[in-house]
Amino acid sequence: MSYTKKLFRLKSPFDTEQSNELFLKAMKENCEFHYKNCPEYKKILDGAGFSPDDLKEYKDIERLPFIPTLFFKKNRLYSMSERKMFIHATSSGTSGTFSDIGFELSGLLCGLDMVITIAKRWKLLSPVPCNYIVLGYRPHRSNKTAVAKTAYGYTLFAPALSRTFALKYKDGKYSPDLDGIIDAIVKHSKSRFPLRFIGFPSYTYFVMKLMEERGISVQLPKRSLIMLGGGWKQFYKEQADKDEFYALAKKVLGLDEENIIEAFGAAEHPILYCDCEKHHFHVPVYSRVIIRDVHTLEPVPNGQIGLVNLITPMVKATPILSIMTDDLGILHDGSECGCGIESPYLEIIGRVGLRDIKTCAAGAAEILSAATTEKEVQK
Known about the structure:
Oligomer: single chain
Shape: globular
Strand order of the largest sheet: 6-5-4-7-8-9-10
Distance between the termini: 37 Å
Number of helices: 10
Number of strands: 15
Structural class: alpha/beta
């Protein structure tokens, strides 16, 4: 069994301290695969004077060259032929460009092990049927976004009696149907089966605000949940603080704060981060998070703000083992949380454009762009 499979089959999803050695071996294994099978990735490492053999100690993971998510949004980078990939998942592409990440079967199976373990921990798996309100995209063959696939996947945690989608596909585009969602909420509130909300926090908030404005309030059945994911995207200016969101859910849906779960992830980093009872995103064993100084890109101590570098050995089809986001964040010691989970937790502060920062990431992107151009010329 590969080290990566062993990592994703660990029974304790937050025992990061004890899994450091296994994580290092899995990362080296993954790095070797991409180094041998992706010429562009090999140029990145060679250009940085780094090789998979340099991953000798756990701390060496900090030296592993990263690729900015911005590069994936403008270029396609794979470590195997597309016919060997099981699926493709794309980022939302709100800026007009999007990442296209390939997944092979082994990576998807690792992801399945992870999701089952986390879902059990959060008691999301249930034999009790429920109705689903998906505050996201109705599936369509043209929609390959990771957030759409993830949202639909969440409807498999418990048998689905019905699925109602907020964003419906018509005439080549998606349009929100918030009135239809409110009608479905009122209808399902009278059922004896739980109602689960899944999807974007923005649309969930907009629906609840509409209900409040129209004087509509319901008491949802027991074991109903709100599961949020995907962030506020283009609605960041309308973003509500968590206390306001929780108070509104209690007022119009009758749901307590403990019945609201938020998830964090990205197409370029398909790891499931679920917030704890204190609403913090603890780092699971399947990944590591490094916060880097905005100017020097050197790792900063826990408690300091910087750029978020996400690391995982999950996928072989695409070299996403170390990616640099355009998020600013802080990594806190797990002991600061108080929920009992000891692994560090990530706090996302905001977003900054990497194009505005003069870093060695730009050099990596230039190497990749040159390699991609050369590849296209040869075709």
